[in-house]
Amino acid sequence: MIAYPDWLPELIEFTGDWNTYVEDIYKRFVDDVVHHKVTYKGLVVKTRYHPPSDGKGFGFWHCVSEAGLKAKEENRLPDLERCKRIGWIRAIIEHPDDRWVKNWSNRRNGEICHLLWFNEEYLIVLAQRQNYLLLKTAYRTNREHTKRRLSAEHDNPINS
Question: How many whole angstroms separate alpha carbon 116 and alpha carbon 73?
């Protein structure tokens, strides 16, 4: 088992009751990212609320579910590995210069994005906006081809 840094919160394990679990992780997400005013490179990180689903913002669902290859956005499925790491988002954003975190900028779908990659296993994507950053997504990077692509991006970042 890896001894993670002290600043990284414990995983929030699935309790066996999906409704209770999703309420718990949503509360954590809102407390950490919506109400806390997390900043990166001097800019506030915001989340997208619309279109909401089940009373929870779009940005939350994007961080705890996956569409799979070529699946439509509305068909995303919960991913327990993403769910249990929801508390990692704020902590990683607040520790971009820690030895556990690689960070760089690139262009994705025509927009400048800032990427924070914790221990080559969890990626956070923040999209540059006029005067803030938008949390686009956060996910595990457990596929070797994804790790190779991200390593290549990290080694050849754009100037931001």
Answer: 23
Distance between CA atoms of residues 153 and 147, nearest Å: 10
CA–CA dist 37, 12 (Å, integer): 22
With vertex at residue 84, the alpha carbon angle to CA 80 and CA 87, rounded to the nearest 5 degrees, is 145
Q: Are the beta carbons of 77 and 66 closer than 8 angstroms?
A: yes
Dihedral angle of Cα 56, 62, 68, 73, to the nearest 10 degrees:
70
Going through the chain in order, the beta strands assigned E by DSSP cover 39-40, 43-46, 65-66, 77-78, 101-108, 111-118, 122-128, 133-140
Q: For the segment 89-131, what is each residue's pLDDT rounded down to a tens digit?
A: 999 999 999 999 999 999 888 899 999 999 999 999 999 999 9
Would you state the structure tokens that stand for residue 87, as one six-digit string?
Answer: 């508390």
SS3 121: coil
Distances (CA, A) of 156 to 66, 118, 151, 153: 27, 18, 9, 5
Q: Are 122 and 92 in contact (CB under 8 A)?
A: yes
Each residue of 60-69: pLDDT tens digit? 999 999 876 5
The segment with the largest mean pLDDT, out of 54-58, 75-79, 117-121, is 117-121
